[in-house]
Write a structure and sequence with these properties.
- With about 100 residues, the protein is α/β, with parallel strands linked by helices.
- It has 2 domains: about 60 residues, no CATH class; about 35 residues, no CATH class.
- It is about 45% helix and about 15% strand.
- Strand 1, helix 1 and strand 2 form a beta-alpha-beta unit.
- It is globular, with a radius of gyration of 16 Å.
Length: about 100
Amino acid sequence: MSERKVIAFFPEAAYGPALNSVGIAQACEALGHKAVFLTDPGMTGVYSAYGFEEHYVNMSEPMPADEMARYWSDFINGHIPNFGKEPIDQLGNYVKEC
């Protein structure tokens, strides 16, 4: 096997990207590498629950839970038209904003 590497993951502070990243990190560890997560404090415990090291980085302005929920609801609802498009057609709008 080649040299063991430390692979840092910086997923978006949302459960979809978080759990996708966990699966990829598990595969990296199965190949003999070490995966660590740099994550927003609002995601505390998500990665450590799977046995990964977490390091906290403020990726967004702190806001109350109800305001954060409204932000993500508005974000998703504003992008629903993009989700029916082919991935390549999402690059200039949805993916670029993310």
